[in-house]
Each structure stands twice: as C-alpha cells, then as structure tokens.
TrEMBL record:
It holds the Pfam family F-box-like. Residues 1-48 form the F-box domain. It comes from the Eukaryota. This is F-box domain-containing protein.
Amino acid sequence: MDFQDLPVELIAEVFSELDLQSLVTVSYISKRIYLVASDSSLNPWRRPIHAHLRDNIYDSTLKHLSVRSTVPRQNWIEILTLARPSFLLFDATLPNLKSNEWEECFRRRFPPSWLKWRKDGAWKEVFLKCALFNFMSGCHVHEISPPRLDRVLYRVWHRGTTSCTSDEAWTKYIVLNRNGSANELEITSRNFNPLAIFHELKVQNNLAHLETRVWNIVDFVDFRILAFGTMAKPNTPASVNINAHMLLNPPGMEPEEVRNSPMRQYVPMISHNAVDDHGVYPVAVGSNSPVTPIQQLSMSTFTYNRLNRPCPAAGHSQYPFHTPGGADSRWVNYADVEEGYRWVGSLMVVAQILGPPDSEGVSHARHYCSFEWCDLWTIAPWLDEIITSRVDGQGLGH
C-alpha cells in the first residue's frame, strides 16, 4: 500500500511528528498531501509549531509561515498568543486574520485590564497598538522609528527592556486584608517597589519582624502574577488571612502528595454556613486542630475551569489546577502549614512584566504593570463570592 493511500487521519498524525521545515517541504509533494496538510480539522502543524515555541526556535521557517498556503490560519492564533513580542514585532510576516481572530489573540495573550487601551480601535489595532506615548529621556531603544509608537506588543517589549514608565504613570495592585475585604491601590510607577510597599503593610499590621514571602501564583507569556505575604503560627484566629489561603491554595486543586497528607484528616465543623475546605488548611476545623476555628464563610459550590484567557505559560498550563513539573510552586509551603504556620496579615498581589529571554531561554522580570479587579476575578474567580468588601483606594471596607 502506498503511503498516500492511508487514511487521512493517520497521514496527518505522521506529519505532526515531523519538524517544521520538513513538514513545509512534504506538504507540497502531491495534491492529496497538500489537501491533508491544509485541512484545518486535521491540522498536523500544531505540534511542530508548539515545539518551536516551547524551545524558543524562531528560525526563518516560522518567520515566514504565513505565506504558506498549506498552513491553516488557526495556527497563527497559537503563534500570536505564545511567541515572544520581539519576534512578532520585528521578524515575523504576520497573516491577514479576521477581526474575531485578532480579538481571540488579544484575550488569550493579555490581561483583561489591558482592554482599556482598545478604546474604539479594531481588534487588530488593539493587539498591535496601545495609547500613543512619547519616549522618555534615558530610554535606550534601538532600530525603532518613529519616536512615537503605539503598539501593545511594543509596549510589552519596551517595558521589559527599559526602565521607561511613560505609558503607565500609575501602577495598580490589590491587597487582600485579613478581615475579608480587599483594596485596589495605586502608586506612581517610578516609585513602585513592591517589597517596600509590603514592608509598610507589615508595619501597619505589627508584623515587621516576619519574613516577607514572595509567591509566584501563575506565569503568562509576557507577565506573571506575584503575591507578597507573611506566614506565622498565629496566637489568635483573627490574625489569619483566609482569602490569602483561598487565592494561593484554592480548595481541591492541591497535588496528590498534599491530598494524601494527614493534615487533610481534620473534620470540618457541621454548620450550614461552613465551607468544606479541601485546601491545605481548613476554614473550619475540629477540636484536634492546633488552631481554633478561624471563621465560617458562606460559599456556594464552585466549579473550576482551566484558564485559557489569558493563556498561562507552559509551566502553569493546567492553572488553576496543579501543573506537574516543578514550575507550579503554590504548594511548596505545605511543610510549614503542617507545622502550624498560616498566612497572617495582608497579602499583596501584583503583576510583573517578563523581559526578553537570555541565551539560555530564561526570561528575567524587570518591571511591573497594573493588576486590577478584573485581573483578580480572571485568575481567581472563586474569590468573587468570598471577598466581603471591595474598596477602591484606602479604606477598611466597612
């Protein structure tokens, strides 16, 4: 039997194991092969394209893939979602996509708060453009002209490679308070130092003697979400921040080794208002707990769904579920929890821009961007019905 006489599904599966350059070559061998390669339902291109993006291979084959008639347009949604900004801005030949496809690219790549840059522009424009801004003195940008640019991808690349903050003068962040409320605060971008800000929060909570713990909640292509908090063995339940636990260790999302731990044998209190907390430490616990019942929260059954808008990086691809492999570090504090430590005081949540990768493919974070309410509900929608009060600016939330 000739290879071309095989079922098209089998041919496509074989093609998906080829490298990208080889697949480009064989896709033009015959009319039947051409039809198989260009069939959007079979799509043998997805696997080799993902391999290139995962390994940071940005060669000429990927650069000019849009000119190949055998490549279904849907693959460019993946490329525009996952490829590094400098490649899309300065190297790639971009395809012609429909407006709804550009919208999908934007929503899968950028945080929802960045929709503010769209205004009345088209979706292609909002993906490639941002509000016009002037370069500030001291910004070292090469090979770009004119000196006024309005691209969102350029904005990401520019913020990740320079200290310029002219496009976002104020940086917003969110603080989860131990009383169940939350505040959206802001500070000038030039003075935004999350460690210094959180130290002030520790002083206000009389926790300056505790070590600041920085937790990586989830990574995306261009940015990541960080949490700044403190852990201690609380003397009273009032000092424990339940919302910090619910954000960092969402109930039912823990890895297998945590799920089988003796710590999970605590029996929840029987109450119509209590929560069956499947997380690393209970919301309401039995008398054998080292900490008295913290508080009772009213929470309906929440169904978790894997986040895809925006799309997490490979190391957090299953978020909010636990992603095996070591990059998802949300439960690495479990040994401390077993010893009686809890999140105490305030928890600060910020967004950090990831700079371009170095020669080893490691991306270094340099600067921060705003993290707003809509971003919090996106990465942790279960908090929407738990946070008791939402305050814009300073305030106690009463």
